Amino acid sequence: MLGMCRGRRKFLAASLALLFIPALTWLYLSVGSFQVKPLPLSPLEAQSSTPLGGAGERQALELRVRAVEEENRALRRELSRPPRSPAARLPNGGHRGNQSRTHSEEGTGDNEGQKAVALGNASDCVQQPVVDKCETIHVAIVCAGYNASRDVVTLVKSVLFHRRNPLHFHFITDSIAQQILSSLFHTWMVPAVRVDFYDADELKSEVSWIPNKHYSGIYGLMKLVLTKTLPSDLQRVIVLDTDITFATDIAELWAVFHKFKGQQVLGLVENQSDWYLGNLWKNHRPWPALGRGFNTGVILLLLDRLRKLRWEQMWRLTAERELMSMLSTSLADQDIFNAVIKQNPFLVHQLPCFWNVQLSDHTRSEKCYKDVSDLKVIHWNSPKKLRVKNKHVEFFRNLYLTFLEYDGNLLRRELFGCPSEADHNSENVGGTLGGPHQSGPVPVRRRGPAVPALRSGL
């Protein structure tokens, strides 16, 4: 029985094999007559495989593909172009940047320093007022008394190192300081620099009636009489203390004159100590001031407007009135400047605090900068000078010592593109007086007898 079952299975398998072999052969031969369609590789190709299009649909698809490729090429060309400046992307030619800059410079209170620092590193992106490269910048400095000439030489070196414009220095000096400075400029022979001297002894009678407790003595009051001392045709001037170190081009500060509005005639930085708040010690009674008051280590003076406002009468009346109760000044001319501003706040244009970073004890100077690039003017306005307490005093001290030891002969740099008179620097120290357009010395323009001045060419 078992043998019969096995025989039947073999028979069925042989029969099926005979039936399937011809069928498979026919299928293989018939496949060659059919067109095999490729699988769609993208949604676009999938749409093209639908039976709705025909030749018209294929042509429309090709046009779409070409349009997409053209858009991609245009995008690549746009990305390959150099990026535009942020100011160029702003509407109205970047006026938004100018508005934010103006706001920071005219702000007041504790936010002033923070706003100024926030814009410090972005200053290159903001359109700045332009100073013509051949415009002469006038700088006035009172340099008289003990050790003043040593400090002013370091200041002058820092200004000359960074400058790109012709300079005209106006020095109010005693005889010793004049001899030292004349000798130095004669040795350096720096082009595009003119120096005029004014005898400080001739000005003592203008301010000697004011008692002053400040260590600067009577010379610390002479900035009050610059409208009378400097030439009557001089319209504007930057006034600096001798204990100043510049860390930028002074032309940037000169450009701030263009921001003065209305009756603003004084550009000053807010005082960074609490002196004028009257809370430093018990019974501390400072001179009147607007808020924290202003520091006079760096002043922008619009001389022509000050003369029209009768500045001489204004400060004298204020000083006489306050001295009846205060008896003397504690911070020299700064007390009187602040008392005048207290009565006439419209006179002042507040500068960002990086234009006068004050390194006296207990100041808020650290709020004026976050990086070295934010620093513009450093003011050693403490009697301790280089020994003052400050978190970054080591950096400031090294900057000061660098200019102290700097060789002035290395400052002999020509200003190309500016017309100038012949350089007679070597002939202009001492000698006889000559006219302003002669090859001899230029007479000092000051109140009182004229004495020879130095000119090294404009």
Give a description of the structure:
The chain has a domain at 137-411: Spore Coat Polysaccharide Biosynthesis Protein SpsA, Chain A, CATH 3.90.550. The protein has helices spanning 2-31, 43-48, 54-80, 86-89, 91-106, 111-120, 148-162, 175-188, 204-207, 226-229, 250-254, 303-308, 311-326, 333-343, 393-404; strands spanning 137-143, 167-173, 193-199, 236-240, 244-246, 266-270, 294-302, 348-351, 357-358, 377-379, 442-443, 452-455. Mean pLDDT is 75; it is low at 33-52, 83-126 and 421-458. By secondary structure, the chain is an alpha/beta fold. The N and C termini lie far apart (135 Å). Helix 7 links the parallel strand 1 and strand 2 (167-173).
Could you name the CATH homologous superfamily of the domain at 137-411? Spore Coat Polysaccharide Biosynthesis Protein SpsA, Chain A
Cα shape: elongated
Strand content: 5-15%
Strand-pairing-aware structural class: alpha/beta
Average of per-residue pLDDT values = 75
CATH topology of the domain at 137-411, what is it called?
Answer: Spore Coat Polysaccharide Biosynthesis Protein SpsA, Chain A
Which residue ranges are poorly predicted, with pLDDT under 50 across at least 5 consecutive positions?
33-52, 83-126, 421-458
CATH class of the domain at 137-411: Alpha Beta
Task: Report the end-to-end length measured between terminal Cα atoms.
Answer: 135 Å
The tally of strands reads 12
Q: Could you state the order of secondary-structure elements as H and E?
A: HHHHHHEHEHEHHEEHEEHHHEEEHEE
Percent of residues in helices: 25-40%
If you compute it from the alpha carbons, what radius of gyration comes out, rounded to the nearest whole angstrom?
40 Å
How many helices?
A: 15
Major sheet size, sense and barrel closure = 9 strands, mixed
Major beta sheet, strand line-up: 8-6-7-4-1-2-3-12-11
In the CATH classification, which architecture of the domain at 137-411 applies? Answer: Alpha-Beta Complex
Membrane topology: Single-pass type II membrane protein
Keywords: Glycoprotein, Golgi apparatus, Membrane, Multifunctional enzyme, Signal-anchor, Transmembrane, Transmembrane helix
Region (Disordered): 74-114, 426-458
Family: In the C-terminal section; belongs to the glycosyltransferase 49 family. In the N-terminal section; belongs to the glycosyltransferase 8 family.
